Structure formats: C-alpha cells, structure tokens
Amino acid sequence: MSTNKKLKGKDLITIGIFSAIYFVINFAFMLMGGIHPVLWMLMPGFIAVFAGIPFMLMVAKVQKLGAVFLMGLITALIYFATGQFTLVILISMASTCILAEVVRAVTKYNSFKGNSIAYVIFSLGMVGSPLPIWLFKADFLAQITEQGMPADYVAAVEALSSNAMLIVLFVAPIIGGIIGAFIARGLFKKHFVKAGIV
Amino acid sequence: MNGAGKKHTLRFDPRTELLLLVLANIVAFTQHSVWVEITWVVFLLLLIVACGCGKSAGKLAIAFGICLALQYYVFPNGPKILASSFTIIVSYARKIFPCLIVGTMVLQKTPVRELMVALRKWHIPQGLIIPLSVTVRYFPALKEETGYIRDAMKLRNIHGVQKIECLLVPTMISATTTAEELSAAAVTRGIENPAPKTSMIEMKFGVQDFLCLAAGLIFCVISIVVS
User: Fold this and answer.
1) pLDDT tens, B20-37?
2) What is the full DSSP assignment across A17-73?
3) Lowest-pLDDT range, A3-17, A145-159, B144-158?
4) Pick from B83, B131, B164: which is nearest to A12 by CB?
5) Domain annotation covers residue B109
6) ipTM here
7) Which of B84, B146, B161, B177 is the best substitution to test chain A (most A C-beta atoms within 10 A)?
8) Model confidence over B99-120: pLDDT tens digits?
9) How many domains does chain B have?
C-alpha cells in the first residue's frame, strides 16, 4: 500500500469503522452469553467464527503496524467504559493484540496465513470476558457454601468452573478463528475481489 | 455527600467518571463483605440519581434487588437445575454491578465530544482518539444501514444461513465507501494537522469531582481492609 508505514488519518478512520462492525457482531453474541454460563464460555469461539470478515477486510485495507491493536483496544475500551466487563478484558485484549501485531509484522502484512494466525490470536482476547468466573471462583464457592447450599450443588458449580472448562474456553476461539478466517477468504473471493475492494 | 446535588443535577468531569470506573473495578475485585458491597452500590445509585439518571437508577436498584433475592431465597429453596445454571451469571452480575452503574452514567450523561476532550487532556494519542470516536459515532449509521438491508432481504425472501452473508457483505461494502468518504472529508478539515487541537468545551475538576473521587478511594481502602 502506502510507502509510509505510519497510520494516517484515512487509516485511522478505516480502523474506526471496521471496529464498529466488529463490536456490533461481538456484542450480539455477548447478549446470547447471558442465557447460560456454558454459552458464555463458548462465546469467544462463536464470535471468532463470524467476526472474521471485518477483521480480514481491515487488515487488507490497513497493512500497517497498529491496526489490530487499535481494533482490540477500542472493543475492550467500549466494554470497559459501559461497565459491562472488568479490567481483565482490557489486559487480555491488549496482550493478545500485541502478539497478533508481531505475527502480522513478521509475515509482512499481506499473507493469508499470517493474517489468519493473527486473527486466531486476536480472537483469544475475548477470553477476558468470562475469565473472571475463574478469578472470582474462590469467592463464589465460599459464598454459596456459606449460604448453606447442598454439597451436590456446590459440586455442580465447581464443575462449571473447572480447569477442563478453562481449556474449552481457550480452545473454542482457536477453532472458531480458523473457521472464521476461511469463511472470510471464501467471501473475499466471491464478492470483495470482484467489487474491487481488496 | 451529595448535599449540593439534591437541588439541581450534578455534573461530573468525564475524567472523574472514568476514574470512578477504575475504582469500581478495584472494589469489585477486592471486596468480600456484603455490607461494603451494598453501601457502595447505594452510594453510586444516589450519585447517579443526583446526576439526573433517576429512572435508570430505579431500574438498576430493582435489578440488584432481584439478584440478591435470587441468591439468598430462590436458589437455596428452588429447583436445583435453576440454581446450578444461573448462579454464575447472577454472582457475576452482582460483582460488576458498581461498574454497570457508573457505565450507565457515562452512557447517558457524557456526550462523545466531551469524552474525547477528556481523553485528549490525559494526553492519549490522537491515533487512539480518532478511531475511537469514529467507532462510537458509526453505530447509529450502522443501525440505519442494516435496517435497509433487512428490508431488502424481506422483499427478496431470503432465509436461513444465506441471511448472514446477505447482511454482512453489503454492510462491509458500504462501510468501505463510508470510510473513504469520511477520510476525504476529515483530511480536508485538517485531521492530519499535527498542531494541538483546540476545543470549545472548558474542562475543569470541580469540588464535586474531588469529593466523589475521595469517596471512591475511601471505599477502595475499606474494601481492601475489610475482608
């Protein structure tokens, strides 16, 4: 693209607009997560399947350092500022986005493989949303034991927040991210290349 | 604490609101006592009532009451399946309740413009402020856009999985055009000018800001000490 590798006004606006689309998709699935905790834990995976298109289109348009980082930061900041999530999401998003940026820089910004890997890593950032379940776990369990709940009930809650579920939480976005990247590639070939957008 | 706010609606500096969010987060992670939690929630609710969000404060208060009732009366006595599937979400909702209250205030009482000035005062780089404000302002346009696409889909009788593709692709294409048009306009108006930006909005910390932050800090200390 441009010879200048610094983000310019146009790049910043493109990032802003695609972040809005990413956020809306993200939010739609987040609402679903309110139905049942298991859905919430799988949610980073669901988001990864469907949000590949805005992500891939953005990295194709802005082949510069910082695009992915800004997208993640904006998503986390909006969630944080509306009080829906804790500081954990800011930390997880920022760290995965930095990793994704490294991958993009190494693969020179225009390879499908590199961008897909970056996308998978980026998707892992949403893990920060249900992660407080595990961080608050001791507190939860103490609280419900204190309330005099039967032992089998305590065990059921413990099973939901077990280490196995923690692994599921992390594996879901990896699988979802790969699927999402391929969906995006299919749609690129079918529509966007023809329309001359990428 | 809100003596001044009872007569006319209180206004806070956006920076105070953001700091309050951080404090609310710290309290959420450190407090272990129900009484500290309830006083903190009541304090924040009174605060947003003073700011003129009475209606949402009422709704939030009811929601908080439901959470408490569920945890203390319904779950121990109701069917087990109900308890085991909803405990986590209800407990989480209770934990982040203070953040939600402050978030509601930010959403309802702070225009995007002021938030941007506040961020600029904190020397947040333009590189983050510009895309962030574009994102926030693009939401209404996106809503309108998808409405039209939905109407078009209804006319053509598109169903099932195809719907997702038919919604996403036009949205992406229109987003690309919007991005181009908007950048042309913004560059013409000097978005790339490196000189510091000026603003009509005057922003200053007032007495209420300091009082509010002090109260927040006291709660933080209490929540760390009482455990």
Assistant:
1) 998 988 888 787 788 888
2) HHHHHHHHHHHHHHHHHTT-HHHHHHHHHHHHHHTHHHHHHHHHH--STTHHHHHHH
3) A145-159
4) B131
5) yes
6) 0.85
7) B84
8) 899 989 888 888 888 988 999 9
9) 1
DSSP string, B53-99: -HHHHHHHHHHHHHHHHIIIIIHHHS-HHHHHHHHHHHHHHHHTHHH
CA closest to A190 among chain B residues:
B169
- Say whether residue A82 is in contact with chain B using an 8 A CB cutoff: yes
Q: Which of A29, A128, A149, A153 is nearest to A72 (CA)?
A: A128
Contact yes or no for B165 and A13 at CB 8 A: no
A148: confidence class by pLDDT, cuts 50, 70, 90: low
| Calpha distance A95→A70 (Å, rounded) | 12
Distance CA B103, CA B6 (A): 21
User: Left (φ > 0), alpha (ψ -120 to 50) or beta: where does A149 sit?
Assistant: beta
Contact A53 B87 (CB under 8 A): no
Tell if the CB–CB gap between A16 and B21 is shorter than 8 Å. no
For residue range A83-132, what is the model confidence (pLDDT) as tens digits? 777 778 889 999 999 999 999 999 998 899 999 999 999 999 999 888 88
DSSP A122-146: HHHGGGGTTTHHHHTHHHHHHHHHH
CA–CA min distance A47, chain B (Å):
13
How is residue B218 written in tokens?
A: 């006291």
Contacts of B28 in chain A (CB under 8 A): 86
Q: Are A19 and A74 in contact (CB under 8 A)?
A: yes
What residues contact residue A129 under an 8 Å CB cut-off, 6+ apart?
A30, A33, A40, A43, A44, A79, A85, A89
d(CA A107, CA A105): 6
Structure tokens given for B35 = 């009484």
Q: What would the pLDDT profile of B158-213 be if each residue is shown by its tens digit? A: 888 888 889 999 999 999 999 999 999 998 988 888 888 888 888 888 899 999 99
Predicted pLDDT of residue B2: 45
Q: Which of B87, B164, B186 sits opposite A13 (nearest CB)?
A: B186
Are the CB atoms for A59 and A108 separated by under 8 Å? no
Q: Cα–Cα distance between B74 and A9 in angstroms, integer?
A: 54
Structural domain including B31 reads: 9-114+204-225
| Interface-testing mutation among B18, B92, B223, with chain A (most A C-beta atoms within 10 A) | B92
d(CA B12, CA B18): 10
